[in-house]
Specification:
- The protein has about 200 residues and is an alpha/beta fold.
- It has a domain at about 85-155: Rossmann fold (3-Layer(aba) Sandwich).
- The chain is built from eight helices and five strands; from the N terminus they run H-H-E-H-E-H-E-H-E-H-E-H-H.
- It has helices at about 15, 20-30, 45-50, 70-80, 95-105, 120-130, 140-155, 170, and strands spanning about 40-45, 55-60, 85-90, 110-115, 130-135.
- The strands form two sheets. It has a three-stranded parallel sheet. A two-stranded antiparallel ribbon has the order 1-2.
- Helix 6 (about 120-130) links the parallel strand 4 (about 110-115) and strand 5.
- Helix 4 packs parallel to helix 5 (about 95-105) and helix 5 (about 95-105) runs parallel beside helix 6 (about 120-130).
- The longest helix has 15 residues, at about 140-155.
- The chain is globular and about 50 Å long.
- The two termini are about 20 Å apart.
Length: about 200
């Protein structure tokens, strides 16, 4: 099957204009902890040729959180550090680490809810970064529901996972062209099954 940039459903126009803006990208490039910036970018030549476009892959595992989510944690805390002393989130690992990193940088607290069967190494790393980790429920959805409940009753903000931060640093090092930036996650060993 041959793919082209026009194949598949198109997202609503609002999604393209929602949270991603040049102003926020420029701000993020200035305020995100430098340890998360200037990550390597590698041309994906074979895939680019197959897709008929230029595709660049960013290596986002060369930072203390080992994930692009560190950018989001750092950016969130920059934007909210004066107003939010405690942030609450739910995570199976990387997002909780990112939020803990950002909280520690600004001397704030981070409460992370995780499932009782979450990866013990990820839980340990969240704690090392300063998060208060609370285990609840048999799966991520149960932990997230409890985190939301706790945030609502305590008055602390619940921070949703899933918002990647694209910094101007990322875009300025790529070829100028009409581009779409898509954060991608490699499948975890627990969920990926090869035939």
């Amino acid at each position: 099957m041959t793919l082209s940039p026009t194949d598949g459903p198109r997202p609503p126009a609002r999604a393209a204009l929602g949270r991603l803006s040049l102003e926020r990208m420029r701000e993020a490039g200035r305020v995100i902890d430098p340890v998360f910036l200037a990550t390597p970018q590698i041309p994906a030549e074979t895939l680019s040729a197959q897709l008929g476009l230029v595709l660049t892959i960013k290596v986002e595992t060369l930072n203390p959180v080992r994930s692009f989510k560190g950018r989001g944690g750092s950016y969130y805390r920059h934007r909210r550090h004066e107003h939010v002393s405690v942030a609450v989130c739910a995570s199976a690992g990387n997002f909780g680490q990112a939020m803990a990193w950002g909280a520690r940088r600004f001397g704030r607290r981070c409460i992370v809810y995780a499932a009782v069967n979450a990866n013990p190494r990820k839980l340990a790393r969240m704690r090392e970064l300063g998060a208060e980790v609370r285990l609840h429920g048999a799966d991520f959805d149960a932990a997230k529901a409890e985190a939301r409940r706790f945030a609502a009753t305590s008055g602390f903000p619940f921070v949703e996972d899933g918002d990647a931060v694209v910094a101007d640093d990322d875009v300025s090092r790529t070829r100028p062209a009409a581009e779409t930036v898509l954060p991608m996650k490699a499948p975890s060993r627990r969920t990926s099954r090869l035939p």
